[in-house]
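Course exercise 7: structure representation. Students receive a sequence record and must write out the corresponding structure in token form. The form below is the worked example handed out in class, using Phosphatase PAP2 family protein (176 residues). Read each field label carefully; the graders check that inputs and outputs are placed in the correct fields and that the protein name is recorded exactly as given.

STUDENT ID: A-19
EXERCISE PROTEIN: Phosphatase PAP2 family protein
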Amino acid sequence: MNRIVTWISTNDRYAFQIINHKLKSKWLDLILPKLTHLGGATCTISSLLFIILISESIFRAVAIKALISLALSHFFVHIIKKIYSRERPYVKLPDIQLGVQPLKDYSFPSGHTTAIFSIAVIIALHSIILAIILLPIAMLVGFSRMYLGLHYPTDCIIGALLGTISSFIVYFTTIF
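STUDENT ANSWER:
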């Protein structure tokens, strides 16, 4: 078991270094600091509330399900961050290219990635057309978190998994 944890940790750092250093480009430096906010609390909550307020029937129901999925996923994110207390890459590793302001909370799991997946997946379960648009955006948000030096790959992978699981739970247990 210890060998597996060591392997994951080593490869997690290695993948992070590739994303944070080797994939740098002016285009990504311009786009990703803006795109990353699509997974933030302000954008996710306000977008869903806006859809709930202005839309009718099916769109409103899907937005309510997405809001429930978001809340459920972040309940688990909060607990896991407290239990695991993983320091962010820019605290632990040298020469991190930090693309945004440093954060004060823990790294594992990625809240932005969890949030965007908890919304994108539940919407994708209702519409294949929106799935084609939203799932790549969700993946880009996860990528942006690593590119900007804020999260390790495993933070984002587990965040995507948590968001996906919460979406499936809400999708298969809600009656509307």
